[in-house]
Structure formats: structure tokens, C-alpha cells
Amino acid sequence: MVSVAAQTSTGANEVNREAARRRTFAVISHPDAGKSTLTEALALHTEAITSAGAVHGKGDRKGVISDWMEIEQDRGISITSAALRLEYNGCVLNLLDTPGHADFSEDTYRVLSAVDCAVMLLDSAKGLEPQTLKLFDVARSRGIPVITFVNKWDRPGREPLELLDEIEQRIGLRPTPLNWPVGVAGDFRGLIDRTAGNRYTKLHRTPGGATKAREEPMDAVQAAEVEGAAWEQAMEELALLEEIGADYDEESFLAGKSSPVLFGAALPNFGVSALLRALINLAPAPAARLDVTGAPRPVDAPFSGFVFKMQANMDRAHRDRMAFVRVCSGRFDRGMVLTHATTGRPFATKYAQAVRGAQRQTVDTAFPGDVIALVNAQALRVGDTLYAGPKVEFPPIPSFAPEHFAVARAVDSSRYKQFRRGIEQLDSEGVVQVLVSDVRGEQAPVLAAVGPLQFDVVTHRMEHEFRAPVELTHLDYSVARRTDAASAPVLHGLSGAEVLTRRSDGELLVLVHNKWRLKVIQRDHPDLVMEPLLAGGLVEEE
């Protein structure tokens, strides 16, 4: 008979072994840098799909699997994060795709709370763009190591050394190229692997980029004959990299001081396999996570996980509600009863799934680093912790500072029940923040958003999912601050200010017309509480 201690030891060994196989990462970029296309290319290379889609797909190449919402497919943008589980060379890759548009940066921040590494995607022609910088700041604030992938090398763009210099100068991250392109941007011939003695791989395009690119290994003599001047230029650039010591260093990478850099083109699937190898070899596996007290929860401790995303109505036939949970420790078994840390109540996990865009499959087991979707999770909200065994609660995920505000009203008063349910649902998902007050009443909640595109999502989903069309009246506020019960009555009585309650957590927020008016109020009433909120992953600047 096996002892309990032996069983426990066996279980811990299994969890540690499985955790070591996991790589959980997000792809972050400026809009139109090719993030969803890269996601498809990774799925293609791991044989999760047989034909890669493109955001603007034609014919048989329908839209990308990660963009499942009707509004995403219509506009050719990602507006909600997606979770994809891929297997490659004995490793399990949990890829969390994120919205590239700045208006949905709060959703991106939530995703970054659930990953161990980020792939920063740069457009070879544009380099570091504003949203890329903002997302990098978020990653840096969370201490997440970053791998850089320079995309679209098959199109005209900038010099590779210029791009590396920009990364170092603008974000203080030392670039350490793992490979190097032969041929200027727009004339992409192949890649030199700096980690394998400058081995050269010539790349051949496949029709439409729907299948893997054909790779042809060559030695230096062959490459020099075939590529001519392009090879000579690449050799000169590599010599310069050697001189400045731009070599990969594990310690500085994990500390967030350097970034391995790869070159490629996601649309024709050039350089994607090199990125996969880098993720497996360099990205950190799941490790102990700090709880609210600052104590680490080891990966082999009993099960724990936290909700980083809510999503409703992914299955239009069932009007479901999903909670996306990052597994932090232990083994998850479908059907196990967990404890909801916020309420102390039991939570059954009968319906657990892995989600790939609009596709799903039942998950029976999961390990640290995995993302599981719990169906019909009415009791859960973003930031909640679920656990088994000793109690644990992970830090909540802060809300961003909203800058756009609008009053929502039901177009048809007879649909008020559906209106209320829809607004509650979008609030719990974090699509917008919902603010209420006794003065305005429940029938006219104030929607608070980071960017105006969030309002488009609200109106679209309210009409098509909840059959409760809304009209929005925009308010002349652009600044929000946290306040307290003592300061609220005074602030509410001032010109150009209004106090409302955030429904999700009961926080009192004061809305002010603009930063100039805010400064006047702070000058005239220095004793009133007006605390900044989180913005862009960091406390917003004054």
C-alpha cells in the first residue's frame, strides 16, 4: 500500500515536471504590426491548424482563429484577448493574444498579469510605435522578460542596426540578436543563426503564405555564392555585433535588462520556427507566485489560480459566461470543488474548457502555466482567486484610469430587464467600467472607458447579444480620481466635478472636466482626497 506521503510526493513531482514543460506568453504590439497574423503562423507551425489565416483573409483563408467576434472580423482588428494552447517539441505553449488597439489596453494589462514572458512585435518599417512603448512599460512594471520579433522583413523597412539602436535608446533594453537577416527589408533572402555558429537558412515563399515556408540550409561557401553582396553585408554587420558584445545573456534577459531579437515575416511564415525555438529554450517556465501577503505559492502546492478575464456569449446558442483562469500551482482536475477566496464559498468546476478562438474542447487536467476556461462562472469576477488546500489570495488586478465617459440609456424602455443584464455582464467582463449614483439612477448608468472604441463594442454587443439597443450621451469629463466618503460630498458640489460609485468594487470616483480644472480643485481644496488611478500599467502622470 502506497503511503499518503508517497502519493503527495508523486503528485508534486508530476506537477513540477508538467510545469517545466509550460511556456505562457503574450504577444504585444502596436495595431497593424501583424500580431494576429503571427499568432496564426505560430499555430500553423505547431500544427494546431493546417492553413494560416490573415486578418484580411480572402477566399478559403478566412479570418484568424483568435479573432472570433463578429465586430473583430468586420473591422480586421483584435479587441479582446484570446487564449490558444499549442504543443511543440514536447512543450505546451499557452499563447495569449491581446488587443493591439490602445483603446483596449486595459484588457492587455489583465492578460500580462497571467503570463511569464512577452513577445514584443515590431514593424520593420515603423520600429517602436506609441502603443508598443506603452505596452512595454506595462511588461516592465510587471517584471516580465521580453523577446523581440521584428516582423514584416519581406516588405521595405529600416536598417536592422538602426532598429536595434532605437530599442536601446528609447526603452533602455539591450538588444541581443539571436539571428540576422540576409537581404535588406523588402528583399528577405534568409536568416543566419547566431546561436549555431552563423548557420544560414535560405527561405522560400509558399503560395499566399498559407503553409510553412520551405527552409534550405546552406554552408557559408554556398551562401556567399548564392546571395553575393547581401551575404557580404550581413557578415559585416555580424562582425560589428561581435565587437559590441551583443550576445544573449540569460541573467539580464530574465531581469528585464536585455531582449533577444529575432527577424522574420509572419505572413509568409519566415522566421516563425526560430521564434518557437526561442520561446522553448529561453522563456521562463511557471514559477512560485506571490500572494497578497507577499508570500510565494510554490508551483507544487495544492491548486490555485486567478481569473484574469471574463467573456460572455462566446457560444451564441447557449449564452454562456466564461472565466479564464491562469493556473498558478498544483494540478487541476475537472470536477474538483475549489474555494472562491472572495466569498469563501465552494465553486464546482464541472465544465472546464480550453478555448482556441471560437473553438473549444473539454479540459480534464491542467498544470501551472495553463489557462482554463470555466463555463457558467456567474459568481466570478476579474481578479478573483480560486484555490484548494491552504487558503491563498493573489493580488487584485487594478483598473485603468478611464478618460471617456457616456450615459447609457435603453432605446426601448420595455427592454429594460435585458438592458440591465447586458450592462451588468459587460461590467463584469471589464469591457467598460460602470459608474452609478443616486442622482442619475440605475436606468442611466455612466460608462467609463479608456478609449472610445470600447463604446462601439458596448453598443454592438448590447444590440446583437442582449437585444437591448442603447443610446449613449457623452459627458464632458476627461479625468477620474479615486476619493473617499468624507471628501465625496464636497467634491460633488463643486463646478466641473461629479462623484459616482464604481459598481464592480464600490470605489468612489470623482470625474473632472479636464486636468486644468483638476489642478484648480487641488489648489483650492488641498485637504480633499483625489488619488490617481492606474494608467498604462503605471500610475498615471500628473
UniProtKB/TrEMBL annotation:
Pfam families: EF-G_D2 (PF22042), GTP_EFTU (PF00009), RF3_C (PF16658). GO terms for molecular function: GTP binding; GTPase activity; translation release factor activity, codon nonspecific; translation release factor activity, codon specific. Keywords: Cytoplasm, GTP-binding, Nucleotide-binding, Protein biosynthesis. It is found in: Cytoplasm. One of its GO terms (biological process) is regulation of translational termination. InterPro entries: EF-G-like_DII, EFG_III/V, G_TR_CS, P-loop_NTPase, PrfC, RF3_C, RF3_dom_3_sf, RF3_GTP-bd. It comes from the Bacteria. GTP binds at D97, T98, P99, G100, H101. Increases the formation of ribosomal termination complexes and stimulates activities of RF-1 and RF-2. It binds guanine nucleotides and has strong preference for UGA stop codons. It may interact directly with the ribosome. The stimulation of RF-1 and RF-2 is significantly reduced by GTP and GDP, but not by GMP. Belongs to the TRAFAC class translation factor GTPase superfamily. Classic translation factor GTPase family. PrfC subfamily. This is Peptide chain release factor 3. It comes from Thermobifida fusca TM51. The lineage of its organism: Bacteria, Bacillati, Actinomycetota, Actinomycetes, Streptosporangiales. The gene is prfC.
